[in-house]
């Protein structure tokens, strides 16, 4: 049975996500990805051009934030850490970026762009001082990325063993402070 071009691209992307997640950007090869997809390496090149473009397509991440207007303001920290836990556990693209971003500057730049382009605008809706939003988003990202690195990549036993609810209980208040808390003597919550 012959696949459509869209089906072939989907098979390649699925194989690439798995291979990049397992081997990182440097370790993954077009040949290995093609083998995993059950196709000729030339087909990967035909559809994606090169490894960098294939990686960009495989690691295309939409953080899919919830509507914060529907969440009580004092609960946004807990809601966001819960949301990020769900995203890390359900999206190989996020794992690819996390694992590879620590060793590859182009991937790190992509991760910075995703967080700046998606998290900062969300955070700016929580604070009337729009100039502080990038700082607040950056601090929130330190918690989210640090937790993800320790839980999913390094698998530090105490953090990896925590339940979802325990992580929300521990990190929710910290994210809340970063997102809406007191800055320069002004409580913005």
What does this structure look like?
The structure is a single chain. By secondary structure, the protein is mainly alpha-helical. The protein folds into 2 domains: 5-58, Homeodomain-like (Arc Repressor Mutant, subunit A, Orthogonal Bundle); 68-180, no CATH class. It is 71% helix and 0% strand. It contains 10 helices and no strands. It has helices at residues 5-27, 30-37, 41-48, 51-58, 76-90, 92-101, 105-124, 133-153, 157-160, 164-180. Helix 1 crosses helix 2 (30-37), helix 2 (30-37) crosses helix 3 (41-48) and helix 8 packs antiparallel against helix 10 (164-180). The longest helix has 23 residues, at 5-27. The chain is elongated, with a radius of gyration of 19 Å. The model has no long low-confidence stretch (mean pLDDT 88).
H/E element string? HHHHHHHHHH
Number of helices: 10
Question: What would you call the structural class?
Answer: mainly alpha
Mean pLDDT: 88
How far the N terminus sits from the C terminus, by CA atoms, comes to 59 Å
Number of beta-strand segments: 0
Q: Identify the overall geometry.
A: elongated
Portion in helices: over 70%
Outline the biggest β-sheet.
none
Which residue ranges are poorly predicted, with pLDDT under 50 across at least 5 consecutive positions?
A: none
Estimated radius of gyration: 19 Å
Approximately how much beta-strand content do the residues carry?
A: under 5%
Total domain count? 2
